Amino acid sequence: MDNELFEKAPIPRAYMTLAIPVVLSMMVTLVYNTVDTYFIAHTGNTDMVAGVSIATPVFTVMIALGDIFGLGGSSVISRLYGKGRFDDGRRLSVFCFWGAVFTGIIVIILGLTFHDPILTMLGADDSTWRYASQFYSLIILGSPFIIVSMTPSNLLRTEGFAGPSAVGSIAGTAINICLNPLFIHVFGWGAAGSAGATVIANICTDLYFVWFLLKRSRNLSIDPRLMFRSGHLDISRQEASGIFAIGIPASVTNLMQSLGIVMVNLFLLPYGNDAVAAMGIALKIVMIAVMILVAFAFGGPPPIGYYTRSDGQPSRSSAITMVPET
Hints:
Layout: H1 3-7, H2 11-41, H3 46-82, H4 86-113, H5 115-122, H6 129-141, H7 143-155, H8 162-186, H9 190-215, E1 228-229, E2 232-233, H10 237-268, H11 273-298, H12 301-306, H13 317-321
Antiparallel strand pairs: 1-2
Helix pairs in contact: 2-8, 2-9, 2-11, 3-4, 3-6, 3-7, 3-10, 3-11, 4-7, 6-9, 7-9, 8-9, 10-11
């Protein structure tokens, strides 16, 4: 763990060291989402663009589900690190990782079971159903990889590894940028190609994070044996509720964003698929400002949690949230 960053560096420096890579990562994530729309728009098929725009909120829902374990886990684990309880932090990091995997499996089951009702609710019609279904189905099948990618990217920041966390996101985006034109235009897979590129990029990101956790991290793990003691799950109700108490409200924020996009799409349907496609492109651009602000917010929890004293009261953390340290 990069103790020098939290223990010795001035608080503004510690915060910005963590926040700046998150800002870059968020910007890259935005590019990640925009790339799909960009290359699909170049097909000149507005029904395809509208179909992907209609199904895109499903991807945002998966990001929200990943935040439950990523943001919730990083908040709890950083507080444990601040108290010197590194073994407990390692054990909870395993719970967060496999909790995200299990959530992804549930999403696959529910998403495929309720395929038609969900697409109908999202606003797919006869002209967009084919494209929305192609994008939706592949994204659902790749949901464990998408959800899991949000967990280690957040947990690594609790050890001060904001840079490697951003590297994983940037690498995934680079792969997505390379695969999108190949799958959409060269192979002619259309909406399915866009979704496939997204899933493969997330798989590559996950592989990088798993490698980093196994080889470089000292206080995070993915070893499921750490979650069990004498054959029973060694995660207390208090520990799980602590993760969910932070993670679920953060997740709801993203879920509301998805709901807002769905509602806008439904209101635009009477004006035709061109309007839905245009709004889908515009919303990606609007998210630039939102992502930057969210990224600066995400840079705060690791140092705030670490600086919290063992009695639960803030010590140096108050300098982050109120007055800069002099």
